[in-house]
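ok new one. same drill as before - structure tokens go in, u give me an amino acid for every spot. 420 of them this time. try not to just spam alanines like last time pls lmao
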């Protein structure tokens, strides 16, 4: 099934330029939907597409369609700020995000595509005693679980971040930081493209502009989906449609506890390199990194009300800019070049939903909120195994929907939110 990968040299790039760029091979096939598949995945975001790749690659299930109502990665996957880390508070989260982080280390080689994984380190600043205590608690949990992340004193923060304002007048004085040296970022859309290209080569159909309107059940079993391009039958269906998952499951009597909220991000004009690690601060409420090109990638808190809109309100923009100036006052005259929003799918405990839902054969992978980009390889790996075997792998069991009824929340509100 696998098509040969075409490689390009500088010479072939120049030749293509001379011929008006007419000879490029499509990265993934523009598939037409067929009437039935073994597995249908709803949503070609990172989680849907990675699951399809691992299904084909590791489990030999190639008769798979990923149905996307818009374009590949057009949801949150290509709208995020690309931050990758695994220093969460709960052991369930550390296991899942830790697996994902380790897969990111070799993802470019695995997918034969440069996803620009850049582990320059990640520093979460503590500005209050309470924050210091909270981050120290996370560092302790990380140490017990074997996640390489620890507290560093202010002197070390300043040597990692010489441009951070050190003034004694500060409203938010620096008390220390949680540091993960292998934290960093990757290029978000490259991750989606890389998985899509490989999945397509392995025979997966990626069908864009094909919205799923409803999920069809026959008694207690799932049998297919009704789409904007007709009915498609499948015995196994996974919904990975982020904040748009709940309305697809509600008619089947499954209520997903997900609230959609707008989250915005910003990119500045390029500057000379001054910022090596990613810097995050819960108290000032913002985070910042600098790309290889020199642009600053900046984010902050979510908008204050539920919304499916991808256009955010003004106050979070002002708050985020103020937060950055609190940390780096010399940025005051830097211009922001771009700004955008995504609608993130927040659960009550800030942890994702992975597992069976409702009629037999139906699964969900959603609720990733503000921090699901970093989880794409790990979640895809785990959910592919779940779909292939019908058994939920131990690492995913705690993330099942039943945790809310049973009161077994995986509360990550201290280690997520603005700390993506
Ligand atoms: C501004 C911003 C910054 C962020 N920063 C970070 C970060 O730094 N690090 C991090 O780890 N995470 C970050 N995130 C969160 C991260 O982007 C998401 O958690 C992650 O992308 C979720 O991936 P997904 O595949 O679940 O959803 P999505 O990428 O949203 O994919 C869902 C797909 O389903 C499709 N869909 C919806 N309904 C239907 C339907 N009925 N039929 C067919 N298709 C449908 C949508 O069009 C979409 O393409 C950020 C998010 C935003 C918005």
């Amino acid at each position: 099934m696998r098509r040969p990968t075409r490689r390009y040299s500088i010479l072939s790039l120049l030749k293509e330029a001379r011929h008006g760029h007419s000879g490029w091979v499509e990265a993934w096939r523009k598939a037409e939907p067929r009437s039935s598949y073994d597995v249908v995945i709803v949503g070609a975001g990172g989680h849907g597409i990675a699951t399809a790749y691992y299904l084909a690659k590791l489990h030999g299930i190639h008769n798979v369609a990923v149905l996307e109502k818009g374009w590949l990665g057009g949801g949150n996957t290509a709208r995020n700020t690309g931050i990758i880390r695994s220093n969460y508070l709960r052991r369930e989260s550390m296991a899942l995000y830790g697996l994902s982080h380790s897969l990111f280390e070799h993802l470019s080689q695995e997918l034969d595509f440069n996803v620009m994984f850049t582990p320059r380190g990640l520093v979460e600043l503590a500005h209050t005693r309470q924050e210091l205590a909270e981050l120290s608690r996370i560092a302790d949990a990380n140490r017990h679980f074997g996640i390489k992340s620890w507290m560093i004193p202010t002197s070390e923060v300043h040597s990692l971040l010489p441009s951070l304002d050190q003034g004694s007048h500060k409203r938010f004085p620096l008390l220390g930081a949680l540091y993960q040296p292998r934290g960093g970022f990757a290029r978000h859309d490259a991750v989606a493209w890389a998985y899509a290209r490989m999945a397509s080569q392995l025979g997966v159909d990626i069908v864009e502009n094909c919205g799923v309107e409803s999920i069809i059940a026959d008694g207690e079993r799932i049998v297919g989906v009704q789409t904007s391009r007709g009915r498609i039958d499948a015995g196994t269906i996974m919904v990975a449609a982020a904040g748009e998952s709940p309305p697809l499951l509600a008619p089947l009597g499954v209520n997903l506890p997900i609230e959609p909220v707008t989250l915005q991000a910003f990119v500045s004009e390029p500057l000379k390199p001054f910022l090596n690690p990613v810097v995050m601060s819960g108290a000032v409420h913002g985070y910042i990194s600098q790309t290889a090109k020199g642009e600053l990638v900046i984010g902050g808190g979510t908008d204050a009300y539920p919304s499916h809109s991808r256009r955010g309100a003004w106050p979070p923009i002002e708050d985020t800019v103020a937060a950055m100036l609190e940390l780096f006052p010399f940025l005051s005259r830097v211009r922001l070049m771009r700004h955008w929003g995504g609608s993130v799918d927040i659960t009550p405990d800030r942890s994702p939903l992975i597992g069976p839902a409702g009629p037999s054969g139906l699964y969900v992978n959603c609720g990733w909120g503000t921090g699901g980009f970093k989880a794409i390889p790990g979640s895809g790996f785990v959910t592919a195994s779940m779909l292939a075997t019908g058994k939920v792998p131990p690492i995913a069991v705690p993330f099942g929907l039943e945790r809310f009824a049973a009161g077994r929340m995986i509360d990550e509100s201290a280690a997520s939110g603005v700390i993506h």
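The first strand starts at residue 39 and ends at 42. and btw The mean pLDDT is 94.
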